[in-house]
Amino acid sequence: MKKGYNVAIDGPAGAGKSTIAKRIAKEMNFIYVDTGAMYRAMALYLIRQGIAPEDTDRIAEVCSGADISIEYRDGEQVVLLSGENVNAFLRTEEVGNMASWSSAVPAVREKLVELQQRLAATADVVMDGRDIGTVVLPDADVKIYLTASSATRARRRYLELKEKGEEPDLQKIEQDIIDRDYRDMHREHSPLRQAEDAVLLDSSDMTIQEVVERIRELCR
Ligand code: DC
After folding, report:
1. How many whole angstroms separate alpha carbon 119 and alpha carbon 96?
2. C-alpha 34 – ligand 1 centre gap (Å)
3. What spacing in Å lies between the alpha carbon of 26 and ligand 1's midpoint?
4. Least C-beta-crowded within 10 Å: which of 133, 170, 171, 202?
């Protein structure tokens, strides 16, 4: 069986991973796999089961019951929870907070890593997340660690919310980013870190197109 060409992009929240991965996938005709959306779908399942984010014992017990699968419709990744398209429910604070807790539970990771590895086995993919280069696809053809300063990431998020007509608090956003980074980098299982053979890209002073071109160069 032909192995797919695999591009792994890891990094903290707000570094621009999904925007960049989507663009690369489109230009190279690869499939974009958003692993964060899978952790969010698991989080939604746990919320619907009435489980509290801190209750990691219950999360470990219940997570095996989640029926999560991925489909592609018009080039967009659709996450299905028991067959229901849940994309529209994944981007809330509540789901993000639950995902930040539940993604630290080994049983949750095992289940989703297996699904991710199956997707990448035979298809050309650009996959983004926190542990793609280190755990999910250790043999990826190209590995990128994409980061940006917390101030830059906070500003980007602030402008995004402003555009939606909200009145965001820049300082609070930056503090949330710092807290979430800390949890992602210091959890016991598959913490966020740069793989030894990953190329470090700091997008603080780069445009999206500059980052995309640099990654495409690395793929060549
Ligand atoms: O990238 P995101 O914000 O959609 O990710 C949601 C949560 O899932 C976040 O807390 C980090 C976690 N995550 C992870 O642990 N491993 C991944 N490969 C992707 C996301």
Report:
1. 23
2. 9
3. 22
4. 171
Distance CA 88, CA 76 (A): 13
Tens-place pLDDT, residues 29-77: 999 999 999 999 999 999 999 999 999 999 999 999 999 999 999 888 9
Beta-bridge partner residues of 32? 126
Length of the chain: 220
Q: Do the Cβ atoms of 63 and 102 come closer than 8 Å?
A: yes
What is the SS3 assignment for 33?
strand
Q: Which helix (H) or strand (E) covers residue 218, if one does?
A: helix 208-219
The CA distance from 48 to 89, in Å, is 12
Give the position, in ligand 1's atom list, of the atom nearest the Cα of 99: 7
Supply the residue whose CA is at minimum distance from atom 4 of ligand 1.
Answer: 36
Sort 183 into a burial class: Cβ within 10 Å, 0-12 / 13-18 / 19+. Answer: middle
Q: Which domains does the chain have, with CATH numbers?
A: 1-30+125-220 (3.40.50.300), 34-123 (3.40.50.300)
Q: Would you say 8 and 127 are in contact if contact means Cβ atoms under 8 Å apart? A: yes
Q: Which of 36, 22, 154, 147 is nearest to 95 (CA)?
A: 36
